[in-house]
């Protein structure tokens, strides 16, 4: 009698002979290292899983009860940029960040840049010039005048004068190639805009045309930096002395014009900040009058935002005043060189240079400190 075989019988017969059963066709659900194989006895073979799921399942642990076709990804939070983080004054987050950031770390970050080292050398240079100024004034006075100065004193003065000259030359070398920054801005304007594949690519504008159409402050910064480099190269001996003197005179004129432009821009910014500050103060006063004798805990959210905005505007106005004072010191300093003034030249230039060095170093220190506080606040 003919016998009709079914797949189940083949499976049972295979189990008795080989002892593996369906293990050669199906991998165990708990064996993650086994590769996927299709059952040839099935009339409807299973779908082929997606490649991304196979790759993910091979590198992750198996979770009981989960399906390989259910791709569940955890939602990722958008990355927070440091530039967008603002620290509110008087908050617990700011106090914790200030406790972690030390002064030494701020000075270290400041001295990593050529601008920070320039400010440090400028402070040392003009501090020594102030000391030499007082020393010369005291030793030439009637009270402390001597017929002959001791040798160690003359040697000390000579060494300090040499140190001042060396620091001045070092600062010039640190500021070499500063023309790359304005040149990059000009070249960015020269680049052709993005075009589609069908449209014809626009021809880049000539460099001379782009440079002449650049913003005047950027163009002035470029010309001044090039003139400063020519003067420094003449000090190094690579260019002639007359060429260096002419370049130095031209750089002084550029510095004078840039200082005047900076003072005008500073005045405009202070007017804008003052008007915004007046609006916020009026709004805060109106809200306080409307609230009456309410306690600090019952202040509305808008009032707290206005107070934070007012504190931010006051801080901006403070640093604008610092910048204005520094520009005024620069104007006094460069005016003596440009117009060749003689009366009170050394004392005024010395104190003006020291004042500008202190103000610019304080502003740069605050900038690096704010950057470190923002970076630390992200980890709190």
From TrEMBL:
GO terms for cellular component: peroxisomal membrane. This is Peroxisomal biogenesis factor 11. GO terms for biological process: peroxisome fission. It comes from Mycena maculata. Residues 1-90 are annotated as: Disordered. Residues 1-15 have a biased composition (Basic and acidic residues). It is found in: Peroxisome membrane. InterPro entries: PEX11 (IPR008733). Keywords: Membrane, Peroxisome, Peroxisome biogenesis. The keyword Transcription does not apply. Residues 24-42 have a biased composition (Polar residues).
């Amino acid at each position: 009698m003919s016998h009709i075989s079914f797949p189940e019988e083949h499976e049972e017969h295979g189990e008795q002979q080989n002892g593996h059963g369906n293990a050669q066709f199906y991998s165990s659900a708990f064996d993650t290292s086994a590769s996927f194989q299709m059952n040839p006895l099935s009339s409807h073979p299973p779908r082929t899983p997606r490649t991304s799921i196979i790759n993910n399942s091979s590198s992750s642990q198996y979770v009981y009860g989960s399906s390989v076709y259910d791709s569940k990804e955890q939602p990722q939070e958008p990355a927070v940029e440091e530039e967008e983080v603002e620290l509110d004054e008087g908050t617990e987050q700011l106090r914790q960040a200030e406790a972690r950031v030390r002064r030494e770390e701020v000075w270290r970050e400041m001295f990593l840049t050529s601008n920070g080292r320039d400010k440090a050398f400028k402070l040392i240079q003009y501090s020594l010039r102030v000391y030499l100024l007082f020393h010369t004034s005291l030793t030439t006075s009637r009270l402390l005048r001597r017929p002959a100065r001791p040798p160690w004193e003359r040697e000390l003065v000579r060494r300090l004068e040499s140190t001042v000259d060396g620091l001045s030359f070092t600062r010039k070398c640190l500021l070499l190639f500063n023309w790359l920054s304005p040149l990059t801005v000009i070249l960015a304007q020269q680049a052709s805009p993005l075009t589609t594949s069908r449209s014809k690519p626009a021809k880049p504008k000539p460099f001379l045309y782009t440079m002449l159409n650049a913003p005047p402050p950027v163009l002035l910064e470029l010309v001044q930096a090039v003139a400063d480099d020519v003067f420094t190269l003449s000090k190094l001996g690579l260019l002639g002395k007359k060429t260096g003197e002419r370049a130095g005179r031209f750089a002084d004129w550029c510095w004078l014009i840039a200082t005047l432009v900076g003072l005008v821009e500073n005045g405009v910014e202070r007017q804008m900040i003052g008007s915004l500050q007046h609006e916020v103060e009026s709004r805060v006063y109106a809200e306080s009058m409307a609230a009456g004798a309410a306690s600090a805990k019952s202040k509305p959210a808008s009032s707290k935002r206005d107070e934070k905005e007012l504190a931010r505007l006051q801080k901006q106005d403070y640093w604008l005043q610092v910048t204005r004072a520094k520009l005024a010191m620069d104007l006094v300093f460069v005016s003596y060189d440009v117009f060749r003034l003689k009366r009170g030249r050394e004392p005024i230039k010395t104190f003006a240079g020291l004042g500008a060095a202190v103000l610019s170093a304080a502003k740069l220190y605050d900038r690096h400190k704010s950057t470190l506080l923002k970076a630390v606040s992200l980890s709190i």
